[in-house]
Amino acid sequence: MAVDTALANPTTARPDAAIARPRFRPGRLAAVVVLVAATVLVLVWAATNPRFEWGVVGDLMFDPSVMAGLGMTLLLTVVCMALGTALGTAAAAGQLSDFGPVRWSCQIYVGLLRGVPPLVQLIFWFNLAYLVPRLSIGLPGADPVASWSVNELITPLTAAIIGLSLHESAYMAEIIRAGIMSVDSGQRDAARAMGYSRHQTFWKIVVPQAMRVIVPPSGSQFIALLKGTSLVSVITLTDLLYSVQIIYGRTYQVVPLLLVAVIWYLIVVTLLTLVQRRIERRLGRGYDRTTSARVRARSLEGDPA
């Protein structure tokens, strides 16, 4: 009668994975020590270097001009993201259209705006009055019903909103298009077989699944837009960066004022990142392997979770 060799010779039995200990890795320990030492050295250097002028940084963190610039930065980010998402959704739908001229026009629109740097677009829109001195409404060959000076219409704020919104719409169009295309076509076929209309299929089947793919890059794009608003300082719009530039142009305290802007950017970006992660976790329920495994383990233990 055959005898199991593992039972016959306990010394050769396989180790129990439940009581196994992680193997000691000296390389990882050395890496941790190096990182901690480097972090401590950088913090000590920053804290003891008098040229950072941390006292000035603390005094100017809540300066009225700085807070007004921060408010303008947040306003630009929200408005341009909303307009860019609306235009990007239309451009994404156009790229997925079966009608060739609409699809080609949207592809050219996205390619053109993605290919031109946002700084160039801002300067172009700010100087639009050179190409179009006046904007008129009326029938061709007849006196205009209304007419406005483009130089008065295109203020720094208007140019910033137009330039950043159009630039953002091109990227959002690609994000939304990719999210919609990520939904398997079998989902649409199954919905149609169940009697759903095309409208119901899109909003009840496609959009909920596409949002899981759309939200992460959209959140990153929102954060990138927040930082990209600093470009509007070249057209003299008083955002956060331009506000600190005005102050250090008067006081010559360049480094402390730049640190004020850096700290505020880091605070806002960190808060937005936390919100983005929370939304991602909510939309990823049922798709996260770790969460699914935890739920299955609890169900086997009799915990309803």
Automatic annotation (TrEMBL):
It comes from the Bacteria. The keyword Cytoplasm does not apply. It is found in: Cell membrane. Signal peptide: none annotated. The keyword Transmembrane applies. Residues 70-276 form the ABC transmembrane type-1 domain. Its main location: membrane. SUPFAM superfamilies: MetI-like (SSF161098). It is a multi-pass membrane protein. Keywords: Amino-acid transport, Cell membrane, Membrane, Transmembrane, Transmembrane helix, Transport. The chain crosses the membrane at residues 29-48, 68-96, 108-133, 153-173, 222-248, 254-275. NCBIfam families: HEQRo_perm_3TM. Belongs to the binding-protein-dependent transport system permease family. This is Amino acid ABC transporter permease. It comes from Nocardioides luteus. The lineage of its organism: Bacteria, Bacillati, Actinomycetota, Actinomycetes, Propionibacteriales.
